[in-house]
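Risk mitigation, structural track. In case the binding assays with S-adenosyl-L-homocysteine fail to produce interpretable data, a predicted complex structure has been prepared as a fallback.
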Amino acid sequence: MDRPEAPDPEAPDPASGGRRGGGRRIRVDHPLEAVDRRHVFAELRAGLTETPCRIPSKYFYDDLGSDLFERITEQPEYYPTRAEAALLREIADDVVSRTGARELVEIGSGAATKTRILLDAMERAGQLHLYVPMDVSEGTVRRAARELVERYPTLSVHGVVGDFMAHLGQIPDPDERLVIFLGGTIGNLEPATARSFLRSLGSQMHAGEHLLLGVDRIKDPAVLEAAYNDAAGVTAAFNLNVLTVVNRLTGSDFDVASFRHRAPWNAEKHRIEMWLVAETAQRVRLPALELELDVAAGEAILTEISTKYDRVLAASLLDDSGFGMERWYTGSEGLFGLCLAVRR
Ligand code: SAH
Ligand code: AVI
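Fallback model:
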């Protein structure tokens, strides 16, 4: 295993962005850089030619999309981040002592704000050595790495800029790891994809290693719909931005201003769905995909699902994927769930 080195005065400057190191206690690998653009085009083409049309939600997270997500988490209606943070504060010491973790691996790490609650608990236990953030957003991985080595003097960071559906093999393989997947991002995957993702995550873990999985809980649809339709319009801007991302990546000409954000609750599938509805008919040219799309007025593109769970659904997801649920934490508020699971 290629670990971050102990402090080395000869190490390159963090600002240089060098592959190996980039700083004394920071290393960032970038498997996403090696992905052929043809793969991106094929993935987008596959989604846009489905019925209904879809755009994979990972395309939300360019620099603007990542900033907009952080702003969503501050909206009064968007309770999941605050609820999960409060729950983490209640349980972090218990999780650290049960798992004995010295190394924290985070999938879809984003700004790694809530992560600090667990890192603080590991530091209190004298168990803080390595943090491995994995995210498609290079900016967020690098920023989190810089901030966290500054905050924790004993910590090294080995970031991976990658797609968690493709690059889990790039996660370093030391001992006594705790893997975390927070925010309810598992709910952004279709049920079958969530299972295959967790199975491949499990295949990178040793028997007995732990996963802390965050799931948003099924609740009053009015509360859920409000969370995805904030009054300030930040979620709408986040949703619409994905068309700008696709236009930039593929040279397409989606008329972004003619689409509207919608985020209804789908009771049957116990999920919020985010759609972009065309207000006017248009022909969209996507030269890089060798595709022209005729979008009718009222037609909608599915950009995200956000599946909500209860204890039984979460336990069965984990069980089907090679994990056993050891603890189901919901805390005093009960809005959000954290499952501590062990790789069988
Ligand atoms: N864990 C943070 C961020 C959640 S937002 C929190 O709980 O607040 C979802 C994060 O997952 C974003 O940072 C996004 O860039 C990342 N992400 C989405 N799809 C991804 C994929 N396929 N591979 C890697 N990261 C992904
Ligand atoms: C990252 N993910 C868990 C968020 C969610 O709630 O499904 C993304 C999001 N979409 C709209 N608001 C937040």
